[in-house]
Amino acid sequence: MDKNIRRICRFFLILFTILALYLGYINLYLGPSMATSPYNRRLAAIEEKIPRGTIYDRNGKVLAETRNGKRIYPLGRDAVHVIGFISRRYGRTGLERVYDQHLLGISKENELQSIINKLLGRVQKGNDIVVTLDAALQEKASDLLGNRKGAVVALDPRTGDILVLASSPSFDPENLEEKATGTSTRYDLLLKDNDSPLINRATQGAYPPGSTFKLVTGGGMLTSDPTSAYRSVNCRGEITVEGFTLPDIASHGITDFDKAIALSCNTFFATGGLELGAEKLYEAAEAFGITKNPWEGKVQEVPCRPGTLTPPNKMSKAQIASTAIGQGELLVSPLHMALVAAAVANDGIIMRPHLLDRVQTQDDGEIIIKYTPEEWLEPIGQTAARILKRAMVKAVEEGTAARAAIPGITVAGKTGSAQNPSGAPHAWFVGFAPAEEPRIAVAVIIENGGAGGSAAAPIAREIMKMALKIEQ
Question: Which comes out higher in pLDDT, residue 117 or 164?
Fold first, then answer.
């Protein structure tokens, strides 16, 4: 009898232990995400009781706030891919979702204050979020893109502060639940739109980078063999590799490193890529973070697509040559190319990109969380970065990037015209300014825009002028 009782006790003890572990897992591990899940009906009840925090840009301009119980987005379609939206029907996106707990004041940093508020009968308030975006620059970028498909990314290479993430086409975040037809809402139509306006092209776009990738190939060349900076090739207007002919934009004649960047010589960098070989070319792309997610292991502030390229063991020599000039099976996002430019601007160091500046209380602005800039990657050394910078300055002063020039400011840039199977080439530009002490790095892509020097470079110029407060 006693033996049976002991067995039953052990059985229930095991059940209670399993139940305790399960409840602990739910509360401690899944609890925070479940609390702010758009599928959690309690969230709506919480929102009705807690004044949601406001999202501000770096200069104090409102990006999202609650008025009369409704969430308002002053920048509207210009920043929706970053700020996101809140919808009872479609959930939360963007920073509204990522920092939901802070905006509702229910994060772990607020636990003690929540207890005090309950004991004293005070109204619980959400916290405000200050982000690194510059609202004026964001609006400018959106205006410059206009009705064209494409994206603009701008960041501070010294800190990783993201100043602009503009994507076109876009959409209005405040009318998503409105009926557009008899059976479909505006959001339903966005889902079916062939232009994919819901995609954040700045971070999720997958494009061949064209000649802007020559900065990566060049960085690999300089790292592998520093004498690459002083070597020349004879460009005859094309190069043939294993029966595959890769055309150049011109017959450049004797071409050194600086001239190859300035005039975007395919022959020079295809030759350099072949000398590097598949392994080292791939390693150069990895070193610049092309194949990585900058938020890996951190709070994923925006969806980000890592770049892709042919694995080294599957690269033929023809594919090596094509990849070295930004073609082949290589696909990248505008953010990744902005980070490549930032590496050159910041003496070879890429700071981790980020959007959060600080979390602060609504009433008195007391800082609860403050972001500290951190290094992410160091793909090239200081000497290689300065050689690339010198060549990029030459590209603006007397090469393909001339339309990025700003009077009185030394601008460094690189253009690209990326061939693609869906029409005219994509127009690219990456660069930074002032070259001596860079404060802004930019990447611009215009889908099917043609030449990067004529379509993308002028947009980058206007963004840099505004950021540096140059008189128009």
Answer: 164
